[in-house]
Amino acid sequence: MTSDHQPTRRLRSQDWFDNPDHADMTALYLERFMNYGTTPEELRSGKPIIGIAQSGSDLNPCNRHHLDLAKRVRDGIRDAGGIPIEFPSHPLFENCKRPTAALDRNLAYMGLVELLYGYPFDGVVLTTGCDKTTPSALMAAATVDIPAIVLSGGPMLDGWHDGELVGSGTVIWRSRRKYAAGEITREEFLDAALDSAPSVGHCNTMGTASTMNAIAEALGMSLTGCAAIPAAYRQRGQMAYRTGRRAVELVLEDIRPSHILTREAFLNAIRVNSAIGGSTNAQPHIMAMAKHAGADLRPEDWQAHGYDIPLLANVQPAGAYLGERFHRAGGVPAIMWELLQAGKLDGSVPTVTGATMAENLEGREASDREVIKPYADPMMERAGFFVLKGNLFDFAIMKTSVISADFRARYLSEPGREGIFEGKAFVFDGSEDYHARINDPALEIDERSILVIRGAGPLGWPGSAEVVNMQPPDRLLKRGITSLPTIGDGRQSGTADSPSILNASPESAAGGGLAWIRTGDVIRLDLNSGTCDMLVDETEIARRKMDSIPPVPPSRTPWQRIYRETVTQLEDGATIRGAEDFQRISTTPPRH
Ligand code: FES
Ligand code: MG
Question: Dihydroxy-acid/6-phosphogluconate dehydratase N-terminal domain: which residues (predicted)?
Answer without folding.
Answer: 47-360
